[in-house]
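Try this one yourself first.
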């Protein structure tokens, strides 16, 4: 069997007395598209933040592409990762956030060029070629010299996707990327994600409140509650005939809210 692209092995995350991830076990196969759904505060974003190493975990091991991310191997033992190790393995992961997080003083093109030059050491010319191709991919070639303030929310989010892709990640994380958008702009961002999923070798993990998109796009949907996966399965199964009472309750509440 091929090794999973991402593996959470008994991962725990606590903030003081609050347990946010409770011995989480989750494996994501190469090129698999997985959505995480669940109530507010259930730990969905924390899963992505731990993968981005934005904070340290309190227990367990996270693996990416058959390498420990949170640890490193020393004399056959796993020891906590050094910052250097974290940076290197984390380079395989790209993340798109709810609030775009673009550099306001840089154009769309410069936003996509910054990290490939400063982190990967590409020449400006190489980075520009890559950025132009990616802005084209997300349908923004004509906006490359615009600053974030001159772009709509949907356009900003598409620049953020191009910027993450410019680092050539193997795994892309999407954290409620349409939540801050006006409803009429949601579709253009989802279309870009759809296209990426269909045309590129990318493992994708997304936290979403867009049940329709999760249903159509994902190979697997995980329902989270209380820092645990309560139920998971192919979308037709999870949405069509949820087995767990808590999942049914959540899905009914979402349906009622429209
Ligand atoms: N830095 C922090 N310090 C203390 N508690 C935190 C911190 N970050 C998150 N939490 C808590 O951890 C829990 C899980 O948060 P998380 O953001 O992962 O939930 P979520 O399922 O993504 O929620 P939402 O759908 O509202 O975004 C929440 O109770 C939150 O208040």
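Now uncover the answer:
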């Amino acid at each position: 069997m091929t090794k999973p692209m991402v593996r959470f092995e008994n991962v725990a995350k606590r903030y003081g007395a609050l347990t946010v991830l409770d011995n989480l076990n989750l494996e994501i196969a190469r090129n698999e598209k997985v959505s995480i759904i669940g109530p507010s505060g259930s730990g969905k974003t924390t899963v992505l933040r731990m993968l981005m190493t934005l904070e340290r975990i309190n227990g367990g091991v996270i693996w990416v592409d058959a390498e420990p991310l949170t640890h490193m191997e020393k004399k056959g033992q796993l020891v906590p990762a050094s910052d250097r190790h974290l940076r290197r393995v984390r380079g395989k992961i790209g993340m798109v956030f709810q609030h775009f997080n673009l550099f306001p003083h840089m154009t769309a093109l410069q936003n996509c060029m910054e990290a490939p030059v400063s982190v990967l050491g590409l020449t400006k010319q190489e980075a520009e070629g890559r950025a132009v191709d990616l802005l084209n991919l997300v349908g923004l070639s004509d906006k490359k010299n615009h600053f974030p303030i001159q772009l709509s929310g949907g356009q900003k989010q598409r620049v953020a996707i191009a910027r993450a892709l410019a680092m050539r990640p193997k795994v892309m994380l999407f954290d409620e990327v349409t939540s801050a958008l006006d409803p009429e702009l949601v579709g253009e961002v989802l279309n870009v994600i759809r296209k990426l999923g269909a045309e590129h070798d990318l493992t994708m993990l997304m936290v979403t409140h867009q049940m329709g998109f999760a249903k159509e796009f994902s190979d697997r949907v995980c329902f989270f509650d209380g820092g645990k996966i309560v139920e998971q399965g192919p979308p037709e199964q999870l949405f069509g005939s949820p087995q767990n009472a808590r999942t049914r309750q959540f899905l009914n509440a979402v349906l009622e809210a429209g």
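Discussion: The chain has two domains: 6-92+172-257, 103-168. The pocket of adenosine-5'-triphosphate is lined by residues 15, 18, 20, 38, 40-46 (CB under 6 Å).
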